[in-house]
Write a structure and sequence with these properties.
5-stranded parallel β-sheet, about 775 residues, about 60% helix, mainly alpha, 7 strands
């Protein structure tokens, strides 16, 4: 049995407390149980070394032959790595044979943990060292820290994130500030500033520690202000015992920058123009050229990720990349010094203008939820592009192209501000201005600002006539129809919508017609008017043919309203639930509020006044957030809301009604929560609607896809007439599908179909 090298190892004593990282420590210790090489990666200053040492200190009892730190920060020569490790572990280097051989021999059979720190400059040498030592000793564990992975077989990698701002970063700031100023306290007065400071520093431990040292002479608010002025000047450390690259934040990032090859540095500089992360396509589109070929970007980006300069992340399922703000600002300074900044900013603007226009032009088709998710992910970049300047017409075009981001993504206020600013900066009578004017009018209509909408539509109409732009003229007609409908002029609105549909443009023929048609349904909705159902079915058929969902949800709402006004409560309920099911993917406050209102009215008509009250309570915060009421969208809807409210108050009493409103409003304060409540409810509803219900995964079913859709709706208790409305079929066709289902499955009635469906659904993984 070989002798013990040392009973305790050589871990340095900690001079400051270790704050946070409890989950990280638990996970790393768990991984060390099976992983023989575990590499902690992360941006400089994120605390990789400190975390590794904390883990090693806690693992002392598990390694009988000690836990050892091998600090490679001072080493620049790859051939000196093995010697540095030997020195750290107390293995003599007598020069008779390669020191790596001596290390391997001494470690054979020992249970040792080696913390191999700061490997990034010496990745190849460290990889060779780790591979040789792990081969020599089955009981050895290596915990490496590096901005680059070692890249050998068996390596496990853990990316060390910044501290959570809500608790860990604040606690670290408090701890370090107290060390330099014992009377420092977190109080109600400075709490907001502390959170702001930690957020601005993005939870980066080194930055927080450097900032905390400034609180000896600065207040928290002063530190926040100074940080905004010049974060690198503020964060100059005074600890001469620290490694040189840790004495200032700039020196630390300089060290990372020097690790990069010229093309990596060039990409780092150019990536700094992105304001809220970026996708690969954006990096390729904006950063390629003049030294970086487009097909080189991916490889360079991967290398920057491996060096922890760029962080790989995700936003709503979209793969993304980002730079911590400090890293981004450093790159931006380098970019400015290179003389490339303005050129890159214009490329950035042009890329995101093209992206926004591509989404707007292709909106009425499949992928609308994904398109909105992309716009949300790029919100910061879109805002930066709007601020780029240089070409007011490009800014105007971008503000207009973002129309679905503004109107379908709960950004009406920002959309209006951006449009007003862009319109003021570009008064020339151009096609871009005409388009921006009708987009601004749409935003104003949704906000209930009828005078502004009318003013903008007047100018847009004038420009459309001057240029004979049929699309602008048809769009203005459609929004004039919306304005008339919102003012209660139903017949005028109907005429305007029909004129817009008749305009010889793609609006009347393509999927864009769905937007007009669902509004025409609303204009035709009246107890004595039977045309709305046919118009609605036409809208749904077009949306289904093109894979469109957003306008389809609105059409289902309009059809539901029409069915309810004609006393078909069953069809009305199925249709509005179908609309809400689609709306789950959008987060549209206005649409959700209108749909929830209608659901409450239908629910009250069914006699469930208590649930109707809760639904009205759930929708009330949405109207408050929008800043308007249902009256904005027409006096008819206002009357129907009042009637429902009166019926509920009569049934429950004023106090019970107000209690239900208040309690429900507190619990449901966003479209997602409201829709989840409405479709799930307190009564065990499944929350699934007709055409959106998933089909069973049983590949052996004899039913066709359409028959499976019909079976799903039958299982929900819908009759043939309601199913026909949901699937845009005739009742006779649905009846034929039901008969085919019964014949294929050998069933005698609808109850057996429902039972069969439930059983198959239960087997779906």
């Amino acid at each position: 049995m070989p002798g013990v090298i040392s009973e305790a190892g050589n871990l340095p004593a900690a001079f400051t407390t270790f704050v946070g990282r409890r989950r990280d420590i638990v996970e790393i210790r768990r991984l060390l149980g099976s992983a023989r090489l575990l590499t902690l990666t992360g941006v400089g200053g994120v605390g990789k070394t400190r975390l590794a040492l904390a883990v090693a200190a806690m693992c002392g009892k598990a390694f009988a032959d000690g836990c050892w730190l091998v600090d490679l920060a001072p080493v620049r020569d790859p051939s000196a790595v093995a010697g540095a490790a030997a020195t750290a572990l107390g293995v003599p280097d007598l020069g008779a044979r390669p020191v790596l051989n001596d290390l391997a021999r001494h470690l054979a059979g020992r249970r040792v943990l080696i913390v191999l720190d700061n490997c990034e400059y010496l990745v190849d040498a460290c990889a060779e060292l780790a591979d040789r030592l792990l081969s020599a000793s089955a009981e050895l564990r290596i915990l490496a820290t590096s901005r680059k992975t070692l890249g050998i077989a068996g390596e496990h990698v853990v990316a060390v994130p910044p501290l959570s701002v809500a608790d860990e970063a604040v606690e670290l700031l408090r701890d370090r500030a107290t060390a330099v100023r014992p009377d420092f306290r977190i109080t109600d007065a400075n709490w907001a500033g502390i959170r702001r400071l930690c957020a601005d520093l993005e939870g980066l431990p080194l930055a927080i520690e450097l900032a905390a040292s400034r609180l000896r002479t600065l207040t928290v608010d002063q530190a926040v202000d100074r940080l905004e002025e010049d974060r690198f000047k503020l964060l100059t450390g005074r600890n001469q015992a620290a490694h040189p690259q840790q004495r200032t934040l700039r020196a630390l990032i300089d060290w990372s920058y020097d690790l990069c090859c010229p093309s990596e540095r060039l990409l780092w500089n150019r990536l700094s123009v992105f304001a809220s992360g970026f996708g690969l396509d954006a990096a390729e589109g904006v950063c390629s050229g003049k030294g970086i070929a487009r097909d080189e970007v991916l490889d360079l980006l991967d290398r920057l990720v491996a060096q922890s300069v760029v962080l790989a992340t995700e936003h709503e399922g979209l793969p993304r990349y980002r730079l911590l703000e400090t890293i981004r600002q450093y790159g931006r300074q380098r970019l400015a010094a290179s003389g490339e900044e303005q050129r890159l900013l214009l490329r950035h603007r042009d890329f995101f203008l093209a992206l926004a226009e591509r989404i707007a032009d292709g909106w009425y088709g499949p992928g609308q939820e994904a398109a909105l998710a992309r716009l949300r992910a790029e919100h910061g970049n879109m805002r930066a592009a709007l601020d780029c300047g240089g070409d007011p017409q490009a800014t105007l075009a971008l503000a207009a192209a973002l129309r679905f981001h503004w109107c379908a993504d709960a950004l009406l206020g920002e959309g209006r501000r951006q449009l007003e600013r862009a319109l003021a900066a570009a008064p020339e009578p151009t096609p871009a201005r005409a388009r921006a004017l009708w987009v601004a009018a749409w935003v104003a209509l949704l906000q209930g600002d009828h005078p502004a909408a009318e003013r903008w539509l007047d100018e847009a109409e004038e420009l459309g006539e001057q240029s004979n732009d049929l699309v602008v003229r048809a769009t203005v007609l459609s929004f004039r129809g919306t304005l008339a409908l919102n003012k209660g002029r139903r017949k005028e609105a109907e005429s305007l919508f029909e004129d817009a549909l008749a305009t010889p443009t793609t609006l009347g023929e393509g999927p864009e017609a769905v937007f007009l048609l669902f509004q025409l349904v609303a204009a035709q909705t009246h107890p004595k008017d039977q045309r709305a159902a046919e118009t609605g079915r036409r809208a749904i058929a077009i949306s289904q043919a093109h894979g469109e969902r957003w306008a389809r949800a609105h059409a289902l709402w309009a059809l539901s309203l029409d069915a309810w006004l004609h006393d078909d409560l069953e069809a009305a309920m199925a249709l509005v639930r179908g609309a809400l099911e689609i709306e789950r993917g959008f987060g549209d406050y206005v649409a959700t509020a209108l749909m929830l209102e209608l659901l409450a009215w239908i629910t009250a008509s069914h006699g469930d006044h208590e649930r109707a009250a809760r639904l009205l309570g759930a929708v009330r915060p949405l109207w408050q957030d929008i800043g308007t009421t249902i009256l904005t969208f027409g006096p008819l809807l206002g009357v129907l809301h009042s009637r429902c409210e009166e019926a509920v108050v009569r049934a429950l009493g004023p106090e019970a009604y107000e209690k239900a409103l208040t309690e429900s409003g507190r619990r449901h304060d966003s479209p997602a929560r409201v829709i989840a409540y409405a479709l799930g409810g307190d009564n065990g509803d499944t929350g699934q609607s007709g055409a959106e219900t998933a089909t069973p995964a049983d590949a052996m079913t004899p039913l066709t896809p359409r028959e499976r859709e019909v079976a799903a709706l039958v299982a929900q208790g819908m009759n043939n007439r309601v199913i026909a409305a949901m699937l845009v079929l005739s009742p006779r066709t649905v009846e034929g599908h039901v008969e085919n289902i019964r014949a294929k499955l050998g069933f005698g009635g609808r109850a057996q179909i429902a039972a069969w469906w439930a059983a198959n659904q239960a087997r779906t993984p």
